[in-house]
Design goal:
This protein has helices at residues 3-7, 62-65, 71-90, 109-125, 129-154, 157-166, and strands at 15-20, 34-42, 45-54, 93-101. It is α+β, with helices and mostly antiparallel strands and 167 residues long. A four-stranded mixed sheet has the order 1-2-3-4. The radius of gyration is 18 Å and the shape is globular.
């Protein structure tokens, strides 16, 4: 998704960096707590955004998906906190998972973060917060739709036909 460019805007007053803390250097851990690190997010604390797209067909959440809105995204947020909270705490970062379901429903933490970005955009861009938030969600939704289309198109015709034959 084009999330980094949505957040890293001079008019929002935010600076972000992709894939920080990957652990591929001299660090012993290979976890990557931040797909996007936003410096000076809240009172001088940096935010480690960990972006994930959750499938509604995951066997561990399929029952909840049928009963609760955004259940797969919420489960993905909990997994990201389990994986990243301790490492983020070591680095004095705040872990903010941005989980979205493949059909566009966001987990509860993402809209809160996007609201903060929209507030900054509105103040600096001389627009309303609702317009800034609508624009942000619109661009993110467009990116998700394009990513879903690429995923579908990347599957070979013969592979799809094999799946149909197995039905």
């Amino acid at each position: 998704m084009d999330l980094c460019s949505s957040i890293n805007q001079p008019r929002a007053g935010l600076s972000s960096h992709l894939e920080v803390g990957s652990g591929w250097g001299q660090e012993s851990s290979r976890t990557r707590p931040a797909d996007i690190l936003v410096t000076n997010w809240d009172n001088g604390i940096s935010a480690a955004f960990d972006v994930t797209v959750a499938s509604l067909l995951n066997s561990s959440t399929i029952t909840e998906v049928g009963m609760y809105s955004s259940a797969a995204a919420r489960a993905a947020e909990l997994r990201k906190h389990t994986q990243n909270d301790s490492k983020c705490a070591e680095l004095s970062w705040k872990c903010i998972p941005l989980a979205v379901e493949c059909y566009g429903a966001w987990g509860p933490e993402a809209p809160k973060a996007f609201s903060q970005v929209a507030t900054r955009l509105a103040i600096r861009g001389n627009t309303s917060k609702s317009m800034a938030l609508t624009d942000l969600f619109g661009r993110l939704s467009h990116s998700l739709i394009r990513a879903n289309a690429r995923a579908i198109l990347s599957r070979s015709y013969s592979h799809l036909m094999q799946q149909v034959d197995e039905l």
